[in-house]
Amino acid sequence: MAKLFNAVSEPVGRSIFSTALLPYTLGSALAHYSIGFAREDALPLQRRQALVQWERFARENPDAPEVAELAPKVAEYQAAWRETQAERAQDRAEDALGQRLPDAAWFYARRAHRYVDSERVREISQQAEAQIAERRRAYARTLEFGGSGDELERDRDTVLAVLAGRVAPPASAMPRHLRALEFDPDRNPWGAFERTRSAERWRTTRWVLFGPLTAAPERGALGFADYLLDLPWRIQAASLLPLRLLQLPWRDPTPGESEVAVHARRYLADSPRGEHAEAVRDWLLAFERSRENWVGALRVAEGSPGASDAELDVLRERAAEQALQVASAEKRRDLRAQLLGNVVRTFPETRAGAEAGRAAREQVTVQTAHAVQLSRGFLLENPDVAGPSGIDLSPALLDGDPRNGELHPDGVTLIGGNELQIAVLAESGDDDDPPRKLRAQLSDPDLARLVARLEETSFRNSLLDSDDALEANAQRDVVFERARLGLAGDVDSRPEAEARYAYRGMRERYGMVRARESLLPVELVVQGELDSLQLGAFPRLRTPKTTPDAVLYR
């Protein structure tokens, strides 16, 4: 019922500026709802979860009176589950058949046949077997005897004619080998570069000219009907050509451009001074700049004979900063030390190289077993963790007055064992200055209480606000478990056991503290689309959220 209400309320709310189209948009929304309903699995996700729990209950309690009541539903759901698996396998088989992947199509058709014996499944299996047989015949033709030397000499003349473009390639072996070499990206990287670049240019041109009209309808009658229902909106969006022209320079690199870049790198590796090297290098340099891959851009520019020293210096500084960011983000300290050393060796005359050297020395001299950080923002938003039931910090450190001492934004860090590292503001009182770091020792009961309060608070926050999710971190969980058991003093100093995690406040992460999620079953949605210049506001009923174990039932 909630899905039907949402399907109706959205087009009504989005028709603020086009009330004349309200009947069409409402009918289109209902049609979309019907198509979506028809596309649903025979056994939806929630019912799959129910089936697993019912079967488990029946196994563990075979004599319970509820088992007899659940038996018909279990049988019904099992039949629906077999139908769902058959439909999924059949859809994948049809997709593979359309992509000329007969082996995959045959495999999925056999899987669908295990659940449901249908005429369509047998037809897909026969078509896949026919394609496999045709492929085997084609392979056999390539192994046929080529004849005597005179015939090969005549084939040579044919190959030369094909290369000159005077005749079309015949079906004999030599021209087939020629075509294979011509389209082999390893043997002919320039040809592969040209083909993929032309295809990507054509895709970009179609997107600029026609916008969403370039999208093909999904397979099947329902997909085609869905496409037809959206056709008026696609036509309206296609008319916004100037808007797409403005978006074009800031588009993210597409998968097609990434494929072109692969062939460009292969060509430069094979022919760094080739006939087309300059054109390929210019394209690749522009591509790396567009996605801000400064390390890759520097590598390309260093191979260019015409690159200026000023341009190389700018790219070298940016590449060093990028490499330093990657090294600093590495969680394992041994790998982090190697990456920092690599930055120093590769970019010795850059600011980032000098900073990497200082970071490497600091890591050796001020090394800690773990680094589980509780930032100042997190402690301010969660006073239970900062108070007597947690760290038991002095209130003066969080009162905002730097005259009596104030906590640095880095906050408090669990550094291993029973030790805490408390970062306080420098004498200047500036958050940007390096903090003064103090050490404190906790007893085993106090550390266990802190860990319990921290886990309880972070888990509760994740339930109240989906944006405050608790990320998985196995090393952190091991450290906390050892603290609860009173084993924190036995520190595991291996690099792979190092726990690095940061508990940060919502204001630090998003610049604001969001309100808690409403308990009301309805919410007001304000929605706009830049591509179609549509704006609307409408109520929407909240649908039940999927449980964390839903991924096991998909």
Outline the structure in words.
By secondary structure, the chain is an alpha+beta fold. Among the domains are: 41-142, no CATH class; 371-510, no CATH class. Helices cover 59% and strands 8% of the residues. It is built from 22 helices and seven strands. A five-stranded mixed sheet has the order 4-3-2-1-5. A two-stranded antiparallel sheet has the order 6-7. A hairpin with a 4-residue loop joins strand 6 (522-529) and strand 7. Helix 9 runs antiparallel to helix 12 (255-270) and helix 14 packs antiparallel against helix 15 (309-329). It is globular and about 85 Å long. The protein starts with a helix and ends in a 13-residue tail after the last strand. The relative contact order is 0.07.
Structure keywords:
554 residues; two-stranded antiparallel sheet; 7 strands
Identify the overall geometry.
globular
Main β-sheet, in a few words? 5 strands, mixed
Helix percentage range: 55-70%
In total, the number of strands is: 7
Q: Which consecutive residue ranges, at least 5 long each, have pLDDT under 50?
A: none
Give me the strand/helix succession.
Answer: HHHHHHHHHHHHHHHHHEHHEEEHHEHEE
Radius of gyration using CA atoms only: 32 Å
